[in-house]
Amino acid sequence: MTVRTRTEASISARSSHRYTRPSWDCAACGEPWPCAPARAELIDQYAQAKLSLAIHLGSVLVEAIDDFVGRPGPVPDLYSRILGWIHAERFD
């Protein structure tokens, strides 16, 4: 049985561009998540709640870090990939 976190369930309910674990690649296009379509959907979904987007992605970041801890091989820059991109985005 696969156990899904609340964060994972909320993303998958809204978009086909959701992450898959433990790779953290997009289920729809295979790109590192959040892919461009996922980012656009997140910006649209949280347009009126920028702080909520940061909190949401922060919790996703913690889940990704948990998945990569102890795995062999290089660890991707998860902060830039999952959370850091929102600083450069405009929500106007």
Automatic annotation (TrEMBL):
<protein>
    <recommendedName>
        <fullName>Flavin reductase (DIM6/NTAB) family NADH-FMN oxidoreductase RutF</fullName>
    </recommendedName>
</protein>
<feature type="region of interest" description="Disordered">
    <location>
        <begin position="1"/>
        <end position="20"/>
    </location>
</feature>
